[in-house]
Amino acid sequence: MEFVETIGALRERLSGERVRALVPTMGALHAGHLSLIDAARTAGNGRATVIMSVFVNPLQFGAGEDFTRYPRDIAADRAKAASVDILFAPPTDELYPSTGAPPIRVIPELDPPRWEAAVRPGHFAGVLTVVAKLFNIVQPQVAVFGQKDIQQATYIRAMVEALDFPIQLVIAPIVRESDGLAMSSRNVYLSSDERVRALALSRALRATDAQWRAGERNVEVLEAAGRAVLDATPGVITDYFAVAEPHQLQPIAKAGTGSIAMVAARVGRTRLIDNLILGA
Ligand code: AMP
Q: CA angle, 97 as apex, 91 and 102 as ends, to 5°?
């Protein structure tokens, strides 16, 4: 694995590499991130140069969010990402050279903003701007993202279509702890008590899925099943629990094949998200 910190060095290293697969991350790597490396290898038929980026993108954090305390451990990341070809970990000023907000951004205008976009204004503009930069720097044929951030994946798909990036997107399944908690770099924030309460998110999704499997299709009823689990767990504050269609994550009245149940909730000071494809 080669460790690269500048755009210039990365471009030089990549010149002549014909097939490139990019795995963007914010680091603090866990098994979920590592599963994306395998997905990148598979998508590239084993012939792609796999580039993982590690960059805690200030642009996608709102005021009062956890940018400063977000876990950073590049030494551990270098060890865990040993199976990539290149680990690209630029300092902040390599991607955003001037201080303050960059003057040009990719701003999604999918009206009205829902779910994460409603709770975190400006978040997806920050995500799309950094992902567009990474796409232009790496010029990959394949880019791999996780279903864990399904709304992010939907925005990136919309950007790829709208801006004609010639990139195949791969969305890899969610990797969970053995008790069901979706792996996340933010799980390290949880106290042992909060760690137990955090299981309410995956339990709520499974409760909705159980209703689906029993034949329920009314979204109000499906959502109520999930919310009941969250509401019954002290110390968990729900931002939203919703069932949506899988393509643009629009609200629906009747659930169909592949409908997505999505949840965001705060457990103490930690905000967690999770989702599940009904019946999958
Ligand atoms: P992050 O470092 O949290 O920005 O995540 C980087 C990439 O890893 C994103 O595409 C995420 O969706 C994906 N990811 C995060 N957690 C998981 C997980 N538990 N399973 C699979 N992919 C994940």
A: 115
